[in-house]
């Protein structure tokens, strides 16, 4: 198998796992907090996470553009977590999105391999 296909499918499978984690978190913990009026911190964090999820969906069909959006989402999310001084949680959310975005960029652009 060619190396760019391995990177593409690594990004796709990893992206599915990360997206499933984000969605399970929102459904399991986020929605009950929002419904009870205690989810203000989650509502501030939600746009950054949605950016990475949208980037993953786009990357499934267009790896170059989706990878760029994933990287942008990871960087914006990283800045957010640095601004609230929560680097340990930031690493949990930023690093997977960053690595998946790099996989898609490398798969889309064979010269990067």
How would you characterize this protein structure?
With about 110 residues, the protein is mainly alpha-helical. It has one domain (about 5-110). It has four helices and no strands. The chain has helices spanning about 5-35, 40-60, 65-85, 85-110. The longest helix is centred in the first third of the chain and has 34 residues, at about 5-35. It is elongated, with a radius of gyration of 15 Å. The mean pLDDT is about 80.
Using DSSP, what is the number of strands? 0
Helix content: over 70%
Gross morphology: elongated
Question: What percent strand?
Answer: under 5%
| N-C termini distance | 14 Å
**Count of runs of 4 or more consecutive helical residues:** 4
What's the number of domains? 1
Rg on CA atoms, Å: 15 Å
N to C succession of SSEs: HHHH
Largest sheet geometry: none
Uncertain runs: none
Mean pLDDT: 82
Which structural class do you get from the secondary structure elements?
mainly alpha
